[in-house]
Amino acid sequence: MSAQADILRRGWCPGVRRPMTTGDGLLVRLHPFAGRLSADQAGRVAQAAREYGNGHLDITARGNLQIRGVREDTYPTLLAILEREGMAEPEGDGPNRLTVLSPLAGIDPLDRCNALALAQDIENAAGAIDFLPAKFFVAIDGGGGMPLDAVGADLHLLARDEDSIAFGISTSNGLHWIGTSRLSRTPDAVHTILSGFADLARKGITEVRRLRDLGPDLVQELATRATLDAAAEPPRRAAAPRAGILSLESERAVLLALPFGRCSAEQLLQAADWSERFASGEIRLSFTRGLLLPRIADGYVPALIDEASRAGFITEADDARLSLVACPGRPDCGSALTAAPADAVRIAESCGNLLRQGATLHVSGCPKGCAHPGKADLTLVGRADGRYDVLPDGSTRDASVLDLSIDEIMLRLSPLNTLDALRSAFPEHRR
């Protein structure tokens, strides 16, 4: 397929070689392995976003980086630059990057295995399987301080100890554990499951595009093929932090959050500068839709936090804005049916007390739920009539029995102060 034909496609997982037409121009998505960029790479991406796009970037819920507002006449030059920098994905129709990791992988003292090495082994073993959908991905969770439970992976791997990996499938009710494997056998077991899923699609046995949507009998068949041992429910961990200072034995990391994951070229340039002045010269894109700067000495942390706060980053773990998730919405996204960020801000202004209590609110401009694949305390899904399907304690994948206008939603939310009150605000869903 030609690059020009690719430009006109919509509704798949875009990359550098296959941009997607959306509301504000072409969207070019970078998929760096493990979400890692050097300061030099980040600086070049920021300059390119400013010169060849509209200066806006997104950090996605898989730790990818999107350049927005690229024009058809500037795209070929941008492609050449990103190819030269080694930031274009391989040719092919499968996943642009198969694995997603914690941004702390490799430096988290709580990790029980080398998640980075395991991810590379899985990419080598299974990354070239034919018939895997482009959106397909595997979460590699080392068991440390930033759990990946909510990322919505097709296959979720969790290190239970240094030689035991639990295999899970994402469902609307959380992770369903299907078995365990020795660490050394895990890449082959993943290859067996993924190639088996691809075979089911190739032979027409299933039409689902995601492993997480496969029927339980077929999932069990794949687990049996992979000779997984019996699974036990792993203990629950606290949700991943979304911002703030993270202690890592003798050093620190700082997780910088961005409202709705939206980053300006100037902010990315500033983060690149901080990573060189205060840290290790590396930026890690986080599935929390923020930037992590690793390996910072204690003495540099206050200056970094001060500069980042003034630059518009969220630096405090208890900031109420962290409870709010929204996609780019209309008009920036061609798939969006509502102005999700603007509506999210309106809701936040009327229910700040509720957000400060830790309630999570996801406003999605369409049913795809790109900004947040999992559940939230309240999920709102945009409709063609401008209203929202309302899903308390649900995700965009769930069915709703209620739709309301943004004004009606605000009327119900504005008097609330607690999660218990939120759960009773939409009684229609308890029928």
What does this structure look like?
Keywords: 4Fe-4S, Heme, Iron, Iron-sulfur, Metal-binding, Oxidoreductase. One of its GO terms (molecular function) is precorrin-3B synthase activity. There is one protein chain. The chain has 431 residues and is of the alpha+beta class. It is built from 12 helices and 20 strands. Strand 14 (282-286) and strand 15 (290-296) form a beta hairpin. It folds into 4 domains: 3-84, Alpha-Beta Plaits, CATH 3.30.70.3340; 103-225, Sulfite Reductase Hemoprotein, domain 1 (2-Layer Sandwich), CATH 3.30.413.10; 244-319, 2-Layer Sandwich (Alpha-Beta Plaits), CATH 3.30.70; 322-430, Sulfite Reductase Hemoprotein, domain 1, CATH 3.30.413.10. The strands form 4 sheets. It has a 5-stranded antiparallel beta sheet. A 5-stranded antiparallel beta sheet has the order 3-14-15-12-11. The N and C termini lie far apart (50 Å). The protein has helices spanning 3-7, 39-52, 75-84, 115-126, 186-202, 216-225, 265-277, 301-310, 340-350, 352-356, 406-413, 419-423; strands at residues 20-22, 25-30, 36-38, 56-59, 65-70, 99-101, 138-141, 155-161, 164-171, 174-182, 244-248, 251-257, 262-264, 282-286, 290-296, 324-326, 361-364, 376-382, 388-394, 403-404. 28% of the residues lie in helices and 24% in strands.
Strand and helix layout:
Elements: H1 3-7, E1 20-22, E2 25-30, E3 36-38, H2 39-52, E4 56-59, E5 65-70, H3 75-84, E6 99-101, H4 115-126, E7 138-141, E8 155-161, E9 164-171, E10 174-182, H5 186-202, H6 216-225, E11 244-248, E12 251-257, E13 262-264, H7 265-277, E14 282-286, E15 290-296, H8 301-310, E16 324-326, H9 340-350, H10 352-356, E17 361-364, E18 376-382, E19 388-394, E20 403-404, H11 406-413, H12 419-423
Parallel strand pairs: 6-7, 7-8, 16-17, 17-18
Antiparallel strand pairs: 1-2, 2-5, 3-14, 4-5, 4-13, 8-9, 9-10, 11-12, 12-15, 14-15, 18-19, 19-20
Helix pairs in contact: 2-7, 4-5, 9-11
